[in-house]
Structure formats: C-alpha cells, structure tokens
Amino acid sequence: MPQPIILTCGEPAGIGPELAPQALAAGVPVVWMGDPAHLPPGTPWQAVERPSDPVGVGVLPVLAHPFPAAATPGTPDPANAAAVIEVIARAVALARSGAAGGICTLPISKQALIDGAGFAFPGHTEYLAHLAGGVDVAMMLASTTVNPPCRVVPATIHIALDAVPAAFTPDLLTRAILTTHDALVRDFGIRAPRIAVAGLNPHAGEGGRMGRAEVDWMAPLLGALRQRGLDLLGPLPADTMFHAPARAQWDAAVCAYHDQALIPIKTLDFAGGVNVTLGLPFVRTSPDHGTAFDIAGRGIADPSSMLAALRMAWNMASARASGDVATL
C-alpha cells in the first residue's frame, strides 16, 4: 500500500482553502500542505511531521508551511507567491523520497506567481517536469464519470493557436504517444493500450485537400510506430472521435493542440475531469478547474473534481506500488 497523497494548497486567495477540509471525503489517505491560517475557521486539523503520521477521525492532517501574508479570497497577494512555489517543490521532494504516494495539486494562479515571484514556467506541468530533471511529460485530462472513459493528451499545450503548426512536429508527436502509452501501462494498468491520434486539420486533412500534415508525415509516423508494436488509430478527424461508440475503440486520444483535446472532455465530464501529468517519476494529479477567484470564500465551490483527483492519484500510486490495475 502506498503512502498518503499530499494535497498542495495552491493559490490561497482561490477556492483551494475552502476545498481542503473536504478532501477527507475522498476516502483515501491524504495530507494537506499549506498554511493552517488559510483554512476556513473551525476546520478540524492537526499538524503532522510526516505524511504517514496518524490523526483522529475527521481531522485533516496538515504538513504546515507558513506563508508571509493572510489569504484574502479573490485577491492574490504577491507576498505569498514564493511560498506557493515552495509548497509544490516540497511536496515533490517528499513524493520522490517515497514519503508520499504522490501529489494532488490544488490550482495556482500563474499570473500571481509571475507577478510575485517571477515564475518562469507556463504552468504546473512544466514546473513539475523541471523538478523531475527535465523529463518528457504530457498533460492528460481523464474523465471519471462517463463510460466509455475519455482520456485526452494534447501534444502542444499552452501556446497560441497560430504557433501550433510549427510546434507540432514528428518528434513531439512521437514523444507524446510513447509517454501516453507507457503511462497507460504503468499508471492505469492497461496492458495493451489503444491510442487514437487526432489529425491536425479539419477532417484529418481530407486526403490533402484541407492540409497536408496527415498525409505528408502523420500517417507514415503512425505506421512506423505500429511496426514497433503500438496499437494506434489515426490520424482521425477530431470531430467524430469523441462520441461514445468512438471512445469505446480507444483508451486515450492524443490530440494536436489544447482545445482540440480539452473541449470534448470538459463537455463530457466537466465536474469529474482530472488533470494527470504523465511521464513523471512520481504520481501527480490535479482538479480540472482553476482558482475561481470570482467565487472564492463563498463556500460554494464544487469539490467533485478534487475528490476525483485524489482518488485517481491513490489508484495510480497503488498501481505503481503493486502492479495491479488502477481503476477510476
């Protein structure tokens, strides 16, 4: 059995603090890392020195990490930016040491981290890859409440749409497919993964009439990977590959760009979607939502995605520890 999952605090001015006490409802071993002063008044919590330290029933275990400023819902304080980054790094160090089974990260505000600490990364995913030594990673969004499941991996992530054609290269697509394949085996217990690959252009280029990427290099690349033993579908038209009968034919879809992947899953499973970073030497999941500054502090934030992310992290950690199939 793996060690508990660390839930990092994220941006304290967002909905993270009010979600944190509800983490116990996930029904998996979890410990929160952040400043206890940011938790809602009346939260039953207890400081621990190690993630595995026991606490009473209904009590949130806390790996305390002092922040320099109070948390004002909806208004991030630049003084807290460095501490938000420190919490992520500290949680990763514990996960890599084996003291934690993995990490589940509550949302950060990239702009707040840039303004307050000169954060040099586009987001969590890229920073975690840096902490892991620059490994190849991929961002997966995975559903938890729809069947067949929907798991999507955008090959290009946080870049402008007009930059996608140049960034979407044979090497990038190959690495995204291989990273996805390996993670499906290791973290989801799928022994022979089936991966669908979306075309870059409408109708997957329609034989070259709407773009030539599919004909010129995508189809040959997928053919070469099939010769290596991978089970691949595509290049497929992205507009016809996400309804239920189509999803039944694959275990994950690799897409060319951010919205091509994320619009389908957020339509199918908005509250139950989980962000998973593939390719890391430790487990990392995150709720599929942002800081929600507009509702922070009102006590109305939906914990569903956080709970799903914690359960998925625990199942992935269990799969890594035992080799058993991880379930959603």
Task: From the structure above, extract its key features.
single chain, 328 residues, alpha/beta, Isopropylmalate Dehydrogenase, twelve-stranded mixed β-sheet, 10 helices, 33% helix, 16% strand, globular
Describe this structure in words.
This protein is an alpha/beta fold and 328 residues long. The chain is 33% helix and 16% strand. It folds into two domains: 184 residues, Isopropylmalate Dehydrogenase; 123 residues, Isopropylmalate Dehydrogenase, CATH 3.40.718. Strands 3-4-2-1-5-12-11-6-7-10-8-9 form a twelve-stranded mixed sheet, with helices on both faces.
Summarize the structure.
The protein has 328 residues and is α/β, with parallel strands linked by helices.
State the low-pLDDT regions, or none.
none
| The first-level CATH class name of the largest domain | Alpha Beta
- Any guess at the CATH architecture of the largest domain? 3-Layer(aba) Sandwich
CATH superfamily of the largest domain: Isopropylmalate Dehydrogenase
Sheet with the most strands: spatial strand order: 3-4-2-1-5-12-11-6-7-10-8-9
Give the beta-strand count: 12
Rg to the nearest angstrom? 20 Å
Task: Give helix % range.
Answer: 25-40%
**Which structural category fits the helices and strands?**
alpha/beta
Question: Would you spell out the secondary-structure blueprint of this structure?
Answer:
Elements: E1 5-8, H1 16-19, E2 30-34, E3 45-47, E4 60-64, H2 81-97, E5 102-105, H3 110-117, H4 124-131, E6 138-142, E7 151-154, H5 164-167, H6 170-188, E8 194-198, H7 213-227, E9 231-236, H8 244-247, E10 252-255, H9 258-268, E11 274-278, E12 284-287, H10 304-322
Parallel strand pairs: 1-2, 1-5, 2-4, 3-4, 5-12, 7-10, 8-9, 8-10
Antiparallel strand pairs: 6-7, 6-11, 11-12
Helix pairs in contact: 2-3
